Structure formats: structure tokens, C-alpha cells
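Project outcomes to date are best conveyed with an example. Our students and postdoctoral researchers have been running inverse folding experiments weekly, and each run begins with a structure described purely in C-alpha cells. The record below, which covers 281 residues, was selected by the lab manager from last quarter's runs and is presented without edits.
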């Protein structure tokens, strides 16, 4: 019987690893394959799996310092790549991963990743909490672009480098990058220059239409939420972040940091994630 139980756990872990890998080929997960320690479904008091969704102009490696600390504290972690094509399709991609993770989960979204977890976490009873990190918490009908422009302070527009490319149907689409010469100031002012240069070189673009696509559901209306508000953010103004956080009745932590707070202040991010995990166990 013991051997059968071990085999079942191994099969469950392999399924989670395969699902995450299929969605996030090339994703950097510091310290090994986090999903290998995912708890069995229904285990009382099991630590939730932490699912990290990055935002625009970043990739999953932006979570590396956070992942290392969470794993050291015994949390299973999955950090899949976000396609950055639109909230609905990106949420469906994330949900394809989370549906294969047994047991309770905490969804964490940075920046545009907040829009993604707000959709992906809805109507999933195994998602116990949402953690927003310098992120969007759109209500149904709202867009990321609208929320950014509702309050003064964002300088993102002037730092963007749009790239137009043909779509298979013959139409054209636009991807948005941050210019390399503007990246550190705009996105990661409190990150060492060398590291910020690497982040600029490896940034993933977001489809312009993704920032213009209205939300259709808001998981924060259903589940407890935590929000890290970055007071020196040039992408999403502090006032916009506070408006969304207070509307969601989220547990708010303000930190004097740039938009790249998971890179510059990973300890703060981990503390808030673990607070959410403990509160919902």
C-alpha cells in the first residue's frame, strides 16, 4: 500500500510538471521543478501551490527571487509564461495549467498579470486567494488602458516602441515593447543597471489589443485579495492602484518601489503571498 501511495504521488507530480512545461517551455523556475512538491488534492491543511503570472514587458524569470524564497519556505510554485495576447485567452491558457494542479492554489499576478488572474481565478473553488503585485484589478467592462489613464502619473506611453506585424488573416497587429534606452527608468528604476539591461533585452511584448480588451469577470469580487501597491510606479500610477485595491476590499501593502517590485523587493512580495496563504488555509 505504501508503494502504491508513493507511485500515485509521483504520477500526480509528473502531471503537474507536464502541464506547466507544456504551457511554459523555457520558463525559468529557480531552484528546480516546483510542482514536484504539489500537495495531493484534498489534503487537510496542505500548503497551497503558488501560481505566479507575470505581466507585460517581462517574463517568468522576473519571479526568480520570489520563487527561491517561497521554495525555501516549503511552498510549491509554478510560474508559467503569459502569452500576453488578451485577458480572456491568456486566462484560458493559465487555467489550463491551474486545472492540472491538485489541491488549493494562490494566484499571484504582476501588472497585466492581475487582469489574467482576475479572469482565471473566477469560479474555481480551489483558488483560495488572489495576490496583486503592482497590478490591474479590472471590473467587468474595464480595460487596462482605461484604468491607467483614469489617474495621472503614468509615463509608459512615451516609452513604448510599437512593432506592427501581419496576421495570418491578412490584417495587421501591433506588439508593444519598452524602448531599451527607457526601460530602466520606466520599469525598473530601483533594479541594478546590469540586471535592468538584461530585463530589457529579454522583455516579452504585449499585444496592444490586450490592453484594450474589456474584462468580463472579476475573481476579486468572489475571493479574498491582497495587493502590493508600488508608490514609485511609472507604469500604473499609485492612485490607480489604490483605487482598484480599495474597491476590491484588498489587504493593502504600500512599498516605495518601481513597477518591478518582485525583482527589487522580493522579500516584501513573499511576505504578502505567505500572509495570504496562511490566512486561507
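After processing, the design step wrote out the following sequence:
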Amino acid at each position: 500500500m505504501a508503494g502504491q501511495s508513493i507511485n500515485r504521488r509521483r504520477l500526480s507530480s509528473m502531471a503537474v510538471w507536464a502541464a506547466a512545461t507544456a504551457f511554459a517551455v523555457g520558463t525559468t523556475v529557480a531552484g528546480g521543478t516546483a510542482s514536484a512538491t504539489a500537495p495531493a488534492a484534498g489534503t487537510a491543511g496542505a500548503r497551497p501551490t503558488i501560481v505566479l503570472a507575470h505581466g507585460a514587458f517581462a517574463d517568468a524569470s522576473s519571479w526568480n527571487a520570489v520563487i527561491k524564497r517561497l521554495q525555501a519556505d516549503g511552498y510549491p510554485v509554478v510560474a508559467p509564461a503569459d502569452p500576453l495576447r488578451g485577458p480572456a485567452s491568456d486566462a484560458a491558457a493559465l487555467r489550463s495549467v491551474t486545472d492540472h494542479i491538485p489541491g488549493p492554489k494562490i494566484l499571484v499576478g504582476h501588472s497585466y498579470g492581475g487582469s489574467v488572474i482576475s479572469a482565471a481565478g473566477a469560479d474555481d473553488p480551489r483558488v483560495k486567494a488572489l495576490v496583486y503585485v503592482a497590478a490591474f484589478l479590472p471590473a467587468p467592462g474595464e480595460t487596462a488602458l482605461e484604468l491607467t489613464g483614469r489617474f495621472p502619473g503614468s509615463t509608459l506611453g512615451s516609452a513604448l516602441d510599437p512593432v506592427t506585424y501581419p496576421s495570418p488573416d491578412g490584417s495587421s497587429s501591433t506588439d508593444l515593447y519598452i524602448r531599451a534606452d527607457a526601460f530602466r527608468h520606466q520599469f525598473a528604476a530601483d533594479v541594478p543597471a546590469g540586471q535592468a539591461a538584461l530585463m530589457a533585452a529579454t522583455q516579452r511584448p504585449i499585444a496592444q489589443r490586450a490592453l484594450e480588451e474589456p474584462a468580463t469577470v472579476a475573481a476579486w469580487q468572489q475571493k479574498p485579495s491582497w495587493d502590493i501597491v508600488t508608490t514609485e510606479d511609472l507604469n500604473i500610477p499609485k492612485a490607480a492602484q489604490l483605487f482598484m485595491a480599495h474597491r476590491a476590499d484588498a489587504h493593502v501593502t504600500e512599498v516605495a518601489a518601481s513597477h518591478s517590485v518582485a525583482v527589487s523587493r522580493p522579500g516584501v512580495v513573499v511576505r504578502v503571498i505567505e500572509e495570504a496563504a496562511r490566512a486561507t488555509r
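Residues 17-33+48-281 form a domain with the Rossmann fold fold (CATH 3.40.50.1820). The longest strand covers residues 127-133. The training component of this project remains on track.
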